[in-house]
Fold each of these.
Amino acid sequence: MTAVLAALLLSACAGAQATRTSANTAIIDASAAPACGAMGASRVAAKSAAVETLRAGYERYIITGASSRNNVRTAVVGMQANTFGTISGNTFAGTTTYTPTTVTYGSHDRMLTVIMFNKGDPGYEQALDAKETLGPEWQDLVKSGIRSCL
């Protein structure tokens, strides 16, 4: 049950946007929910680079720069108090436990700069294959984009 709930929470926790900066270059801005962590944001950005390479009509890509930012915050939004005790004669002995209610919000963000290549372009042989990066479901991912950090 816990594994199913975790999978559902992470299934729509991420996204990316591409900004074309020239015919064969792009900047990928990816964001992932706090539960995904920094590694989840990195996976979203890397897969999104492959998706955008194929969408732009290229086969391979090289990541030439990257930056990341942790915008995750936790805030205490309430408190619950539970008091338990015993009465013996005229004496009360008790213990109060305070439990804070916290909310975690924000995102893990990752930005990549990408150069894209087709066969015959200088650097093609050293570049990553976009279809190989995405795996057998690459066509579906190109249509829908990356929406999960899993």
Note: The radius of gyration is 23 Å.
Amino acid sequence: MNVPFRVDNCSIERTLDIVGEKWTFLVLREAFSGVRRFADMQAVTGAPRQVLSARLARLVDEGLLRKEPYREPGQRQRDEYRLTDKGRDLYPLLVALMHWGDKYLADEEGPPVLLTHRDCGAPIEQHFRCADGHEVGGPREVTRMPRVGGPAQKRIGA
């Protein structure tokens, strides 16, 4: 029997501490779509100004976005927000959330957006594979175990 354990240093918990809020995901959605400027992000997300400002600042502080100054002729200098490698690495997570929403929450007409491969036009799919290349169909095909030599785990009920 697989005895549950509590992970003291949970990667999921730490990740959600940074990105686990609706407005943060919407900001990232737009950043992945190429939206870089505050006013444009506010227009497409509908985020209140203070909320958007706070989310952008947090994403910059966490290293997911970086600021890049720009200046329109006759205007003061402003910042654009560009994804870093750390931010771009969240793309599969965002696509997984989108695919789940498309499957379970889309309107009768279907999902509002389809993701396709730029080179060939085929729909984007996500797959799980183990390091040996075997397709992993879901959680029933995965064994969860503490990392040997990692931080201490506490057995539940022990």
Note: Residues 134 and 157 are 35 Å apart (CA to CA).
Amino acid sequence: MSDTATGPGTAPAGEPAFRTATLADVPALVELVESAYRGEASKAGWTTEADLLDGQRTDAASVAEAVEDPDGVVLLVERDGELVACCQLERRPDCAYFGMFSVRPALQGGGIGRVVLAEAERVAREEWGVGLLEMKVVEQRGDLIAWYERRGFRRTGVYSPFPYGDERFGIPRRPDLRFELLTKELKGV
């Protein structure tokens, strides 16, 4: 990611500042992702998956792999020095994959998510020259899918199975979970 006006140390107090994650950030990233999706703490926000899944959402090894991926970037969002949000972008042959999108539960609904998504789109479009963003969302997360649709993503009707039996992705609370592929065309490429 290039050093832009939203780079470290350039945002006014209280404004979100972006930077690229390093291995030193892995523990804080794991905690942030877990807090946004799993357990009681996640219920303070609207992105919780606690009613669908128990167990972990991610682990240090998976996050470290994403941070070190030469074809990707993990963007951190800090406000007044505190980690408040993150996302992962992975460069693929004809698109960029958007994932690990997390916002602290108490801050959800306040606009940070829109800022993070806009920066991810900018990086994919301007720095990587990519015209398509892809992501997978648990199909049963209708409210979350609707949020993405309001931001220009479209449902594809392309599904992939949830990895039942692999507790690295959580312990399902129901037998019908699956992912749907969402895509968004990025203008200006």
Note: Confidence is low (pLDDT under 50) at residues 1-9.
Amino acid sequence: MKNDTALIIIDMINKMDFSGGEDLLENTKPMVENLQSFKKEMQKEGLPVIYVNDNFGLWQDNVSDLIDECRKGQGESVINQILPDEDDYFIIKPKHSGFFGTQLDILLNQLGVKNLILTGIAGDICVLFTANDAYMREYNLWVPEDCTASEKAEGNENALKIIERSLFTSTAPTTEERYQSIFKD
């Protein structure tokens, strides 16, 4: 991977205690292992890993407090599999897009990032809106289909189609050999 690429992990630290949360949890479980091993691959490549996460109303808490609070919900098993490492970045967002009201764009600029790999939940809301905002900021994107999930499989598939068609972005899975080198020199 190019050194101007970052892995973005969206909303994986999540209580999933809302209407539809059980469906989201069930659809997330199969992709967590893919995301976990993909994250490890990207770390070996030296790519920055940036968690962009809802705040769950915890504006004054730190990351460990947010994680502890989210572990109290039904999403604990997912959280325990995809916890941020000490050298990962963690940005708290107030709304759906990872760019809205956050320092994400400033961080990416300081890191010299031009290419984003967007992963996480919910594919049909937060991943889609973050992808749209990244596209509007002229980042090169990849949204691997095997590292996103939504409450409904159909909603996730539709979001991925929009991302491909309207944002001209690959949604090929991480397992496809030809896409493992999507941002290589």
Note: Helices lie at 21-44, 63-70, 76-81, 104-111, 123-136, 153-167.
